[in-house]
Specification:
601 residues; mainly alpha; two-stranded antiparallel sheet; 17 helices
């Protein structure tokens, strides 16, 4: 049996031999080793003379200390292995979590290695973890960017101007599907933002145009809606919130309504200006000063686009001009009214309609001085009567042209009568050939007189039947004039026949009384001069009398011309007063043309 000391010594020696073998294998190890130290200890013990018991006890102590060291190392190794296994398990769990959060079922970079040492397995999974962590960090950044943009655009749409913190990213779900959902939401918000920005710019452009037309400050107007809309302030982004859009829409509506009201006011002023100008015959150079006002008198609201066309100062300028013309109108009303009356009288004169001019003018003065009739209404009524007078003159134009032709023909007839009585008409005097040509033309015209008179009578009767009044010429019924002329012409023809008979009878008597005495020839009886009958003349009858005195006393003497057409109303036209009057002065205002009874020339 080996005792304890020997066993310890042997074990110590074995250990020492192992260490010596290790040292031999590792020559770079230090010179001091366990074996050398044990030999040194034996020598010391030998020199000291230590007994075996002390030596065994010390060797046992060394043994125990060595075992403790090994045990500690083993425990450390166990712990290290456990840590490595835990780390490997954590790595696998982390890998699973990363794949789950990234929405990936598998990862191509992960080796399918479950055998080998723990460190080998860790070394195999570590690169995949690094790649997945990098991918996760990138995915988190993408989520953060997308969510930040979503949060920013949402804040702009909601009108929240406060600076918001970066949104928290839910790392439990970083899948591509969820990221695509956020990106789709971001695209919708970006589209909505673009549409809202487009609407805002449209509103701002409309406000700019309206402010330009109305003469308003554009920057002040848009700044009242939102400061970001004022480009002069250098703000990068514009507000696109619901409140901003609503206020912009209200501003546009208010400006459009203001534009509508201003245009209406300006058109009213332009109408008043034109009426006053026409009333007072304002020259064109004075009217041209307000062309910028009158040019918009008939345009629609949308057609007014010229900057400053509806500015307040322009409207005020037009109001001042209207007020000035109103005051000027009151002082010039009599002059204007008499000018209208003169125009009316000219129409009546050219149409050969007779009115009492003095009575009409006195009535106009009385109406203006009394103030019972508004000047504008008076002039408007006079304009209406002028229009009616023009219409009346137009209806008489055809007949008056024929009357003029008839009168000119009658003048030629009168000249022809004088020419025929001239015994020297065939003498070779100066101008005789011209008179001869005129006589030939006059005979042609005279032969057309009956047809001309008949046509004029027919037209006149048709006119009277259509209008129910008598056609007068300078106050004389035209049909009476034509009847009188026909009677005079008939009397003249009968007188000519009688004279021709007397001449024939005289010549016959002279022949019977003629005696056959050589060289003597009885002279015929002196020819009795024929009676000269001339036709009517324009604004004057035959022998210097006026046309209205053309043989109308035949009506008083029971003339045949009047009895032939007793059913026809021969009352002369009595034109009414063409001036508007009040009811109180109605009886005094009816002014008719004076009826003259012409006498036989």
């Amino acid at each position: 049996m080996v005792n304890v000391g020997e066993f310890a010594f042997l074990r110590f020696a074995w250990t020492n031999s192992k260490m010596a073998a290790v040292e031999a294998e590792n020559p770079l190890h230090g010179q001091i080793s366990c074996g050398s130290l044990l030999q040194q200890l034996q020598q010391i013990w030998d020199e000291v003379g230590e007994g075996d018991e002390e030596r065994d006890q010390m060797l046992l102590q060394l043994e125990q200390e060595c075992l403790d060291v090994y045990k500690r190392k083993v425990d450390q190794a166990v712990k290290s292995r456990a840590n490595l296994l835990h780390k490997l398990a954590n790595a696998r769990v982390e890998l699973t979590n990363l794949l789950s959060s990234l929405g990936e079922k598998t990862y191509i970079g992960i080796p399918d290695k479950t055998s080998g040492t723990i460190k080998e397995q860790l070394a195999a999974i570590d690169p995949a973890l690094k790649k997945l962590w990098k991918q996760k960090d990138e995915r988190i950044k993408e989520f953060s960017d997308v969510q930040s943009q979503i949060q920013k655009i949402s804040a702009e749409i909601n009108g929240s101007g406060e600076q918001v913190d970066s949104p928290a990213v839910d790392e439990s779900d970083l899948s591509v599907r969820k990221l695509d959902g956020f990106q789709a939401q971001l695209q919708d918000l970006q589209k909505e933002k673009s549409e809202r920005l487009h609407k805002v710019l449209e509103f701002v452009s409309t406000i700019h145009d309206l402010c330009a037309v109305l003469g308003m400050d554009f920057f002040t107007t848009v700044s009242e809606v939102h400061p970001s809309l004022n480009d002069s302030r250098g703000m990068q982004s514009k507000s696109i919130s619901n409140d901003t859009l609503s206020r912009l829409a209200k501003t546009v509506l208010a400006l459009k309504e203001d534009k509508k009201q201003r245009l209406k006011k300006l058109q009213e002023l332009a109408t008043q200006l034109i009426d006053l100008w026409n009333l007072m015959d304002t020259p064109e150079e004075d009217r041209s000063l307000f062309d910028h006002v009158t040019c918009n008198i008939s345009v629609s609201v949308d057609e007014v686009t010229i900057p400053g066309a509806l500015a307040l100062d322009l409207i005020e300028q037009a109001e001042v001009e209207v007020e000035r013309l109103d005051q000027l109108k009151a002082s010039r009303m009599k002059e204007i009214a008499f000018k209208r009356q003169a125009e009316l009288e000219d129409i009546f004169t050219s149409a050969h309609i007779e009115i009492d001019t003095e009575a009409v003018r006195e009535n106009i003065l009385a109406l203006i001085d009394s103030g019972k009739v508004e000047p504008v209404e008076l002039l408007a009524d006079m304009d209406n009567q002028i229009a009616k007078a023009k219409e009346e003159a137009l209806s008489r134009k055809d007949i008056l042209e024929k009357v003029e032709k008839w009168m000119l023909t009658c003048e030629e007839e009168s000249w022809l009568e004088d020419y025929n009585r001239d015994d020297n008409r065939y003498n070779a005097s100066r101008g005789a050939h011209l008179n001869l040509k005129r006589a030939e033309k006059a005979r042609i015209l005279v032969n057309k007189i009956p047809a001309l008179v008949d046509g004029l009578v027919a037209k006149t009767r048709a006119w009277e039947k259509d209008r129910g009044v008598t056609f007068t010429y300078d106050g004389v019924p035209l049909l009476a004039m034509l009847d009188e002329y026909s009677l005079l012409r008939q009397d003249r023809e009968e007188e000519k026949k009688r004279l021709r008979g007397q001449k024939k009878f005289s010549e016959q008597v002279s022949k019977e009384q003629e005696q056959p005495i050589f060289g003597s020839t009885p002279s015929p009886a002196r020819q009795i001069s024929t009676k000269k009958v001339v036709g009517p003349q324009a604004n004057g009858g035959a022998n210097g009398s006026t046309g209205r005195r053309l043989s109308l006393n035949a009506h008083q003497n029971g003339s045949r011309s009047i009895n032939r057409d007793v059913k026809r109303d021969t009352r002369p036209v009595a034109p009414v007063n063409y001036v508007a009057i009040s009811k109180d002065d109605a009886a005094a205002s009816n002014v008719s043309g004076t009826e003259h009874t012409p006498s036989t020339p």
